[in-house]
Specification:
The structure is a single chain. The protein is mainly α. It is 60% helix and 0% strand. The protein has six helices and no strands. It has helices spanning 2-6, 17-28, 36-49, 58-64, 71-82, 84-92. Helix 2 packs across helix 3 (36-49) and helix 2 runs parallel beside helix 5.
């Protein structure tokens, strides 16, 4: 499974995620891709895991680690910003994968 390759455990995106994210976004934005729903799910997970973790939020730092130890978070956020037009396609899609 692609998700296993791009993740470093349940709560951490792997170092490859920022590099793969532009390709995932392009594929997920294409309504003709047969596995689109799985790709959209993976993009959503990447978006959630790329959220910054406040240094003073001890429970979240304990669970997710601090941002300084996970540069892939900021790199993923940069990829989302760079490819915002593809995110827009997903957001306006009237027939999203999986209903």
């Amino acid at each position: 499974m692609l998700g296993n390759v791009l993740m470093d455990g349940v709560f951490h995106a792997g170092a490859a995620m920022p590099t793969a994210l532009p390709f995932l976004l392009r594929l997920a934005a294409n309504p003709d891709i047969a596995v689109r729903s799985g790709l959209v799910d993976l993009v959503v997970v990447a978006a959630e895991l790329s959220q910054p973790v406040a240094a003073d939020n001890d429970p979240m730092v304990l669970l997710l680690g601090n941002d300084g130890d996970h540069p892939e978070r900021e790199q993923c956020r940069a990829a989302f910003i760079e490819h915002a037009s593809l995110l827009h396609v997903l957001l306006i899609d009237e027939s999203p994968p999986g209903g």
